[in-house]
Fold each of these.
Amino acid sequence: MKINHLLKKIVLTTSLLLSGVAIASDWTPSGPITLKIGFGPGGATDVIGRVIASAIETNNGWDVIVENKPGGGGVAMLSGLARDKADGTKIGLGVTMATLMNIATRGDSLPFNLDSFDYIGTVVTSPLAVIARADAPFNTFAEFIEQSKANGGYLVGFDGGPQKLIINAINADTGADIVTVSHKSGSEQIQSLLGGQIQAGFGAGAHIEYLKSGDLKMLAVATNVRQPYSPETSSLIEQGFNYSLNPYFYLTAPKGLPENVKAALSAALEEALKSEAVIELIENTMKTEAQNLGPAGTEAELKNSLAMMTKLVADSK
Amino acid sequence: MTDFSVILAGFSDALTLTNMLYVIAGVIVGQFVGAMPGIGPVMTMAIAVPFTFVLNPLPAIGLLIGINKGGLVGGAIPAILINTPGTPDAAATAIDGHPLSKKGKPLKALKMALYSSVTGDTFSDIVLITVAAPLAVIALKMGPVEVFALMVFAFSLISGLIGASVTRGIIATALGLLAATVGLDPEHSTPRFLFGFYDLYDGFPIAAVAIGTLAFAEIIRRLISMTGEIRPAVNFPKDQPREDKRISFKEYWSCKFVLLRGALIGTGIGAVPGMGSTAAAFMSYASTKQSSAQPEKFGKGDIRGIAATESANSSVAGADMMPLLTLGLPGSASSAMLIGAFLIQGIQPGPLLFESQGQLVYGLFGAMLMANLCNFIIGLFGLRIWAKLITAPESLIFSAAMVFCVAGVYLATGGIFGVYIMLIFALIGLVMTALNYPVVVFIIAFFLAPRFELALGQSAAILRGDPLRLVNHPVALVLFGMSVFAVYWLNIRKKNNKPKQPKESKSEPEFNENLQPEEA
């Protein structure tokens, strides 16, 4: 009886161990993997995607082909990916914000939603912050709101729908009367700030040099946690505005990915993020370090962010 | 102020054999892809950017600068030889370049283009190197309201100067703006005119529209007009007298004011992000023609026409670097690629760049000047090859060009969808030309439209919807006033010129301003 029990245990452990090994290494793609990037060639997302692809090629010996599918901040890429076969040979690299914004505002007209995909992991989150000129008479976002009220509404730049939503929601909450001014990028907002055309704006990394040069200062970080490059700056949430934006770069695949494939891809991503080239590139382009939430964490992050975005859409009306 | 020793160290960094080889490679590739209709330097740079990650900063950027500058020269080659601009900014060069080539002097036209291009490029590089910082400060004062007014002025000039009548020019501008409304709006990110095509989220792909209207339409026209007999694309006598194959210094020098005006216009336009070299080339061409004593000579192979356009479109490239280096703002698609390359090298354009990376910046300037020299020398050799190549049967040349267009658009837009868009716009180009509407005005409006719409929205927010607040923006007011005056005045001028035209057109063919079909 005892021996029987022991045998059972041994068999069980060995099979578990074996299956564990199988998850980590036994899957090999049936052909080359296509990595679809939701942005055009030559940009930061494109280069990060390509360097990760080449790291995976070196580490795992798989062929990874990179394809650019620009359009709508990733919507065009995800629309195609949702229809692809879930065998691990088609994966996509996107950025959360624009996609979530689209699902939150016009989800019924999109050919996909968050459940159309399986999630492999995240790469990095961009260090989004609210910034102003260094000589501005306010130092925190709360002070900015007070003065905006007193001065009949300040101008704030934005370069994406979610940033505008946050400002609108804060307007609705506080009556700050802020007017939003559309821009194409963080760099353009910096230009408008320095030229005195707007009073505050959003920076996603390009502003860090200007903090060092003493031209700009940060009023708050827009992510839900503080940033390593400026640990003394508190977040919007800490300052009493219950909103945050966490623009994650993430890897995804069509829904229905077998568990072992998902695990293998996730392990490959984790391994790639440890490569020298990827670490250096992320430091160079994003001024921060890689951050992988893993398959479950990514899915949870996207669902949370979508809830936040839906709340923002409702609050900003 | 940067220390002189840093400047010297930077320049001597640039002058290494490795850098030189990368710059030369870039220029050769750039001239080649520039000369291929459909495959442009922007796409080539996009492909090259990820590879530059493994290089050191200076060779990496030298390579990309080489491609960009090579493309400036290359784009003019097919514009002159087969009336099909290799890059959109060379569209204006075709106006006088192609007629000169048809007169049997393709080498003369090509050389004038090369000299003008290198002259304009070097001029703006020197402006960049010497006065980038103060100019950047002025550019900073150009807020959205001023940029909007500047665009209105550019539209009124271009629609007034190019084409048969001001009305047709304005209609073409409006059509260009309309075509650009497809995609997400800049203010609320609302999708417009998608009809269920998610590929249109970012609007019609620029590459597909430009190649369709400018290159593909012309190729179709030439293929249609083929008679079946085998003949070379360009005919010129073997034993040509020397002066028909070269540009004498006297000829070059006679264009000095034209070149200078082109370079100044190009540098000014380039310093404002988002205006672009195509608009600069046409503005320079139009103002040269307006101020000339014999405007009727233009459009029939006047070297001044080539000088005006090539000096202007090439001088945008150097000036483009001002907002790029000082503010991190790309003024064009190719400088957006350069920013990408800067970032992956860990170089952050911005206020600290000259202080923290002074040596690298001056190395970059050295590489730019080196690229100009390489462009000139390689261009001189290359032009002969292109001029030889063009004696091949036209059926071969144009069908090859067709394949390049399709392949180029497929690559640039990421699929067959872009090719369909290109075909649609080729058709639009053919119809517009047939009805005598200026296609180039349409395409310039399309290029500038996203910026225009953005500036409109920004201005509305900054003025809080109250036009009376414009009094706080005197520069914008002056530009608006000039726009109204330009349309009014140009309209009168065009009308005054009209009665003469029927007489002239009997003796001489009509101006080839809109890349019109020609009787071969």
Note: Confidence is low (pLDDT under 50) at residues 499-520 of chain B.
Amino acid sequence: MDETRKEFWLNAVLLIGLFATPVIALMIDEPFYVTLSTRVAIFALAAVGLNIALGLGGMVSFGHALYFGLGGYVAGIMAHHAFSGVPMVFGLSGSDQMLVIWPVAMLLSGLIAAIVGALSLRTSGIFFIMITLAFAQMAYYFAIGWPTYGGEDGLSIFVRNQFPGLNTMQTWNMFLLAYGALVIALVLFAMLRNARFGAALMAIRQNPERVAAVGISPFGIKLAAFVISGMITGLSGAMMADLNRFVSPSMMSWHTSGQLIVICILGGVGRLFGPVAGAAVFVGFEVVFGGLTQHWQFWLGLVLLGVVLFARGGVIGIIAGRERHG
Amino acid sequence: MSAMLEVEGLEVFYGASQALFGVNLQVREGEVVALMGRNGMGKTTTIHAICRILPVRAGSIRFDGRDLTGLPSYRAARLGIGLVPEGRRCFPNLTVTENLTAAARPGEWTLARVREFFPRLAERSGQFASTLSGGEQQMLAIGRALMTNPRLLVLDEATEGLAPVIRREIWQAIGALRGEGLSILLVDKTLAEILPLADNCVIVERGRDVWLGAPGEITEQVEQDYLGL
């Protein structure tokens, strides 16, 4: 079987597997695994966002927690105001509707990503990594130091936000929302990658000067990709906050940025389903080894080391062969 | 008729060391100009300055009467300067088709037309550029430049390091482009191959243009003074 077909089947298995797990869990009455699958789907969604910047564009953003946390705080703050009835800034009222919260989370993340990108994309390599990290850490310490919304203690969402026609308090419905968003994001990723935009973005990763010589501004393409990337991760943050019914500054910390990069690397950087495979491995480790030892991250680190040294294509690369990412 | 590309008194530095000391050249609409000279005399430097890859210290580069000197390279390319860089620099990890579509700008050169022009690229469309032979990579580099629908095609050492059969194929393709009235600026060292194509020749020597004329006017003396190895 050639490698493209292998990857197709692997993707199908991942897509169906992620759907089947909560179905089986419901049948055997283990709702915990439904929530766990939702967690995988949301982390995968966040990593699909990062994968556009990191995998296609080669932009090693060490600050994607900023958008993840921003989305989370949008969900938390809007719910907080909807609950208390006190208007937010400029007399705008809060909302407990996901269909309002998500666009706000994405727009705000996109706006911040545009500002961060406009400044950080003028650099590259280690400087880019450090500047994106610096922006995320700024937001992190701002969230800690802002007592209105809980500061260091975070902010609880008392009643999960609403989605028309679905009772979001039921774990299965929450899973469906996360899974649906993930599928849409994956389709978007595939479309972007196959479009001229994606070809240009991947070419920029390889050699920005050559891309400029054929009449494409590398900066514009990278910035657009960075903004789209931030928006998707922002959406995932809003969903994660709703899943946990809690948002705290730790969503913005550099640990979270690192987690998202780890998920991409474990699954396969630049691969369509890399984030899904990576998120499954990551959450699996968290549960299986997290139950056995407090130091599960040590073992995850060892696995990551192994992947980086011996299997740079990640899970997808091991099974379906290396595609194109060098 | 005024020239499409006019380079006057071009001076370029690499850091502190000066590489060009005032190069002048012109390419008129529909004309093929050969830029010649020995190794290290400033041919590629001139081309890189025209394509805005290198900063210009003094002098002017005008394209359609428009000054290019302050523009970034992607703007120069958008105005219609299509570079085929030395060493066939394709995007190795993109497929042939992706290499071409990434560069596409609207115009008469479309993916279908480039594939018709280089049937080999059509055969290899799903392959990664890194797996192509040298000649095919060169075709891809030319095809990629054509996809930008340039008004001036700049070819830097288009056949360097290729087998004679392939060289002939490439030169035939360039001849066909010339026949269609595309303006071309050629850089090469092999006189026998470029002279039949060129309308005018410019010879550079130590960062200055030293000779200008039609290919037929290149005497043995000129050849010996500026081009002989």
Note: Chain A has one domain: 3-320.
Amino acid sequence: MRFADVAQVVGRTPLVALPRISPPGRTIHLKLEGQNPTGSVKDRVAASLVREAERAGHLRPGRRVLEPTSGNTGIALAAICRVRGYPLTCVMPENTSEERRRVLEMLGATIVLSPAIEGSNGSVRVAREMAAADPDLFMPFQYGNPANPLAHHETTAPEIIADLPDVTAFVGGLGTGGTVTGVGKRLKRWNPDVKVYAAEPEYGDLVYGLRNLDEGYVPEVLDLEVLDGRIKVDSLRALEMTRRLVGEEGIFAGVSTGASVAVAVRVADRLPEGSDIVALSPDGGWKYLSTGAYDPGDVAAIAERISGTLWA
Amino acid sequence: MAVVRIPTVLRPQAGGEARVEVAGATLGEVLRALVAVHPALEERLLDGDRVRGYVNVFVDDEDVRYLGGLDAPVGDAAEVTIMPAVAGGAR
């Protein structure tokens, strides 16, 4: 396989069955998005955000890109902005891990820190203020940009259909809502009987303690109508499944992957015998190694210790 | 009896409690029983006959929107979790 540059290498990820974790009579398949060029599903989203912005005339030479993100989206945007020639600024909470910052800086991104206590909402606030004050800044804002679910509607879902035309159900994690919305709509267009489930990370009290109910936020790109169920997964269950994936299936994935596979196992029972369930693995485990998630020892004690930083 | 888990932000309206045991066969009955014990919770949780926006309610980990809303069945040993809507994570 040859490509003109790294921006062309997005997608066409492997779909791998999990024969040791799948319950009897059902097969769970995992789509390994960690195989994308910067190591996550967000390469699809970043490519789509930039492409659609260029198409609409929001991005052109001389403009700069700004996005509130401490994670995979920032890394993916940094790579694509580098090859497309747009300087990138990422706004992130000041407690973001050193590794994340180092990767972003290596890829040429400028980092602006927002107060830790405000979490990701604080990064959004700061980024919005910066964008309003500087007309040369373009903020794609993945939580509200239809190019985000579009990436999944146009690439992720068609790949699933091509590899597994008889897909019965799909499970994706709930962050921006782009994955479940985009994949879900396309799969249901293919076959209206396909079920779509979201795995919602249950953050620790530490995170919720900082939130006010009136400031709650439902991303614009999330279409709750496309879902057939939304199931929350706490740190312990996500961690247990993440460790089973590496121990039993030889797949070293991030903690969100464990959450989605845990939901796939749970919903498998309510689907008919012979069902094929696709879960999406957003990324590999490397970025989370330093959290201690894969350390030897009692998983409950580890979950307890790192629940505050696990999903951050 | 179902156990209702109260999020940190609502504990002041629940006498500081993190878990409250109440009886009810549906989510509606459970929440009515809850606000009967802690009336200050009512306006934070309910908007007439509906659960307020930005509040997610789960019965045994499943979002009640997909289980029939306030008609969602609640088992004898069910756990009802009230959570603020939070976006994001490793994005």
Note: The first helix of chain B runs from residue 27 to 37.
